[in-house]
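Chapter review. Work through the record for Phytocyanin domain-containing protein before attempting the end-of-chapter questions.
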Amino acid sequence: MAGVFKTVTFLVLVFAAVVVFAEDYDVGDDTEWTRPMDLEFYSKWAAGKTFHVGDELEFDFAPGRHDVAVVTQDAFDNCDKAKPLSVMSVPPVRIFLNTTGPQHFICTIGDHCRFGQKLSINVVAPGATGGAAPGARGGASPAPAGSTPSAGGATTPPTAGGTTTPSGTSGTTTTTPAGNAASSLGGATFLVAFASAVVAALF
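C-alpha coordinates for Phytocyanin domain-containing protein:
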Protein backbone atom coordinates (compact mmCIF):
# COMPACT_ATOMS: atom_id res chain seq x y z
CA MET A 1 0.00 0.00 0.00
CA ALA A 2 2.85 2.37 0.83
CA GLY A 3 4.28 1.74 -2.65
CA VAL A 4 1.03 2.81 -4.31
CA PHE A 5 0.86 5.97 -2.18
CA LYS A 6 4.47 6.75 -3.03
CA THR A 7 3.81 6.35 -6.77
CA VAL A 8 0.66 8.47 -6.70
CA THR A 9 2.41 11.21 -4.70
CA PHE A 10 5.29 11.27 -7.16
CA LEU A 11 2.94 11.50 -10.17
CA VAL A 12 1.01 14.37 -8.56
CA LEU A 13 4.26 16.25 -7.93
CA VAL A 14 5.42 15.70 -11.52
CA PHE A 15 2.09 16.98 -12.86
CA ALA A 16 2.29 20.02 -10.58
CA ALA A 17 5.81 20.77 -11.82
CA VAL A 18 4.68 20.72 -15.45
CA VAL A 19 1.70 22.98 -14.72
CA VAL A 20 3.74 25.45 -12.67
CA PHE A 21 6.33 25.85 -15.39
CA ALA A 22 3.97 26.22 -18.36
CA GLU A 23 4.37 29.58 -20.10
CA ASP A 24 1.80 32.09 -21.32
CA TYR A 25 2.89 34.13 -24.34
CA ASP A 26 1.29 37.40 -25.45
CA VAL A 27 1.84 37.17 -29.20
CA GLY A 28 3.73 40.25 -30.37
CA ASP A 29 4.13 41.51 -26.79
CA ASP A 30 3.23 45.25 -26.71
CA THR A 31 2.58 45.28 -30.48
CA GLU A 32 -0.07 42.57 -30.00
CA TRP A 33 -1.65 40.85 -33.05
CA THR A 34 -1.82 43.46 -35.79
CA ARG A 35 -0.49 44.23 -39.25
CA PRO A 36 3.17 44.94 -38.48
CA MET A 37 5.53 47.46 -40.06
CA ASP A 38 8.14 44.71 -40.56
CA LEU A 39 7.21 41.68 -42.71
CA GLU A 40 9.32 39.45 -40.43
CA PHE A 41 8.08 40.92 -37.14
CA TYR A 42 6.32 37.78 -35.85
CA SER A 43 9.14 35.48 -37.01
CA LYS A 44 11.55 37.66 -35.05
CA TRP A 45 9.18 37.65 -32.07
CA ALA A 46 9.12 33.83 -32.03
CA ALA A 47 12.88 33.47 -32.54
CA GLY A 48 14.67 32.59 -29.32
CA LYS A 49 11.52 31.33 -27.63
CA THR A 50 10.91 27.65 -26.88
CA PHE A 51 7.25 26.65 -27.10
CA HIS A 52 6.32 23.54 -25.12
CA VAL A 53 3.18 21.43 -24.88
CA GLY A 54 1.22 23.01 -22.02
CA ASP A 55 2.13 26.58 -22.96
CA GLU A 56 -0.51 29.05 -24.12
CA LEU A 57 -0.54 31.74 -26.81
CA GLU A 58 -2.74 34.80 -26.43
CA PHE A 59 -3.59 36.84 -29.52
CA ASP A 60 -4.97 40.24 -28.51
CA PHE A 61 -6.35 42.57 -31.18
CA ALA A 62 -9.04 45.13 -31.97
CA PRO A 63 -12.42 43.42 -32.47
CA GLY A 64 -13.56 43.39 -36.09
CA ARG A 65 -10.16 44.51 -37.40
CA HIS A 66 -8.26 41.21 -37.14
CA ASP A 67 -8.78 37.51 -36.57
CA VAL A 68 -6.69 34.40 -35.93
CA ALA A 69 -6.85 31.55 -38.43
CA VAL A 70 -5.17 28.19 -37.92
CA VAL A 71 -3.86 27.10 -41.33
CA THR A 72 -1.71 24.53 -43.08
CA GLN A 73 1.90 25.07 -44.14
CA ASP A 74 0.88 25.76 -47.73
CA ALA A 75 -1.81 28.25 -46.73
CA PHE A 76 0.70 29.95 -44.42
CA ASP A 77 3.34 30.23 -47.16
CA ASN A 78 0.87 31.61 -49.71
CA CYS A 79 -1.39 33.59 -47.34
CA ASP A 80 -4.26 31.48 -48.65
CA LYS A 81 -7.27 32.29 -46.50
CA ALA A 82 -9.86 30.34 -48.53
CA LYS A 83 -9.92 27.19 -46.38
CA PRO A 84 -8.53 27.79 -42.88
CA LEU A 85 -8.65 24.90 -40.43
CA SER A 86 -10.37 27.24 -37.96
CA VAL A 87 -10.93 30.98 -37.52
CA MET A 88 -11.39 32.86 -34.24
CA SER A 89 -12.51 36.47 -34.31
CA VAL A 90 -13.40 37.38 -30.71
CA PRO A 91 -10.39 38.73 -28.79
CA PRO A 92 -8.49 37.75 -26.86
CA VAL A 93 -7.94 34.42 -28.60
CA ARG A 94 -6.17 31.98 -26.30
CA ILE A 95 -4.63 28.89 -27.85
CA PHE A 96 -3.45 26.06 -25.64
CA LEU A 97 -0.53 24.20 -27.19
CA ASN A 98 -1.55 20.59 -26.69
CA THR A 99 0.49 18.72 -29.30
CA THR A 100 4.06 18.79 -30.57
CA GLY A 101 4.93 19.95 -34.05
CA PRO A 102 4.50 23.02 -36.23
CA GLN A 103 1.63 25.44 -35.74
CA HIS A 104 0.68 28.15 -38.28
CA PHE A 105 -1.50 31.22 -37.76
CA ILE A 106 -2.53 34.06 -40.07
CA CYS A 107 -4.94 36.99 -40.11
CA THR A 108 -7.54 36.58 -42.87
CA ILE A 109 -8.62 40.24 -42.94
CA GLY A 110 -7.68 42.08 -46.15
CA ASP A 111 -4.02 41.68 -47.10
CA HIS A 112 -2.83 41.57 -43.49
CA CYS A 113 -1.13 38.20 -43.94
CA ARG A 114 0.81 39.39 -46.98
CA PHE A 115 1.96 42.37 -44.93
CA GLY A 116 3.39 40.08 -42.23
CA GLN A 117 0.51 39.27 -39.88
CA LYS A 118 1.37 35.59 -39.70
CA LEU A 119 3.07 33.40 -37.12
CA SER A 120 4.64 29.96 -37.39
CA ILE A 121 6.04 28.13 -34.37
CA ASN A 122 7.29 24.68 -33.51
CA VAL A 123 5.99 23.09 -30.31
CA VAL A 124 8.18 20.60 -28.45
CA ALA A 125 7.47 18.14 -25.65
CA PRO A 126 7.60 19.47 -22.06
CA GLY A 127 10.97 17.83 -21.42
CA ALA A 128 12.54 18.78 -24.76
CA THR A 129 14.82 21.66 -25.68
CA GLY A 130 14.82 23.71 -28.84
CA GLY A 131 12.55 26.50 -29.93
CA ALA A 132 10.83 28.07 -32.86
CA ALA A 133 11.98 26.47 -36.08
CA PRO A 134 12.00 29.29 -38.61
CA GLY A 135 12.39 28.23 -42.21
CA ALA A 136 11.71 29.91 -45.50
CA ARG A 137 9.03 32.58 -45.87
CA GLY A 138 8.49 33.88 -42.40
CA GLY A 139 9.54 30.99 -40.21
CA ALA A 140 7.33 28.28 -41.66
CA SER A 141 7.74 24.63 -40.81
CA PRO A 142 5.92 21.44 -41.97
CA ALA A 143 2.12 21.38 -42.07
CA PRO A 144 0.00 20.53 -39.03
CA ALA A 145 -3.10 18.38 -39.05
CA GLY A 146 -6.53 19.98 -38.82
CA SER A 147 -8.85 20.99 -36.05
CA THR A 148 -12.57 21.63 -36.06
CA PRO A 149 -14.09 25.03 -35.30
CA SER A 150 -16.91 25.33 -32.80
CA ALA A 151 -19.11 28.11 -31.48
CA GLY A 152 -17.66 31.13 -29.69
CA GLY A 153 -14.37 31.27 -31.58
CA ALA A 154 -12.92 28.07 -30.10
CA THR A 155 -11.71 24.88 -31.72
CA THR A 156 -12.03 21.28 -30.64
CA PRO A 157 -8.89 19.22 -30.08
CA PRO A 158 -7.27 17.90 -33.28
CA THR A 159 -7.74 14.32 -34.32
CA ALA A 160 -4.09 13.52 -35.01
CA GLY A 161 -0.78 15.30 -34.94
CA GLY A 162 -2.83 18.41 -34.48
CA THR A 163 -2.93 22.08 -34.14
CA THR A 164 -4.07 23.89 -31.04
CA THR A 165 -7.07 24.38 -28.83
CA PRO A 166 -8.10 27.92 -27.88
CA SER A 167 -9.60 28.17 -24.43
CA GLY A 168 -12.18 30.72 -25.55
CA THR A 169 -12.04 32.58 -22.24
CA SER A 170 -11.30 36.24 -21.74
CA GLY A 171 -8.76 37.77 -19.42
CA THR A 172 -5.09 38.58 -19.31
CA THR A 173 -2.07 36.33 -19.57
CA THR A 174 1.47 37.06 -18.49
CA THR A 175 4.00 38.29 -21.02
CA THR A 176 6.97 35.96 -21.06
CA PRO A 177 10.42 37.23 -22.05
CA ALA A 178 12.39 35.19 -24.58
CA GLY A 179 14.35 32.33 -23.06
CA ASN A 180 12.18 31.90 -19.96
CA ALA A 181 10.55 28.77 -21.35
CA ALA A 182 13.93 27.10 -21.77
CA SER A 183 15.08 28.14 -18.31
CA SER A 184 11.85 26.87 -16.77
CA LEU A 185 12.67 23.38 -18.04
CA GLY A 186 15.67 23.27 -15.72
CA GLY A 187 13.50 24.45 -12.85
CA ALA A 188 10.90 21.76 -13.54
CA THR A 189 13.60 19.07 -13.68
CA PHE A 190 15.03 20.28 -10.37
CA LEU A 191 11.56 20.31 -8.78
CA VAL A 192 10.84 16.74 -9.92
CA ALA A 193 14.22 15.55 -8.62
CA PHE A 194 13.65 17.31 -5.30
CA ALA A 195 10.14 15.84 -4.98
CA SER A 196 11.53 12.37 -5.69
CA ALA A 197 14.11 12.79 -2.93
CA VAL A 198 11.44 13.97 -0.47
CA VAL A 199 9.13 11.04 -1.30
CA ALA A 200 12.03 8.58 -0.98
CA ALA A 201 13.01 10.04 2.40
CA LEU A 202 9.44 9.74 3.68
CA PHE A 203 9.20 6.07 2.81
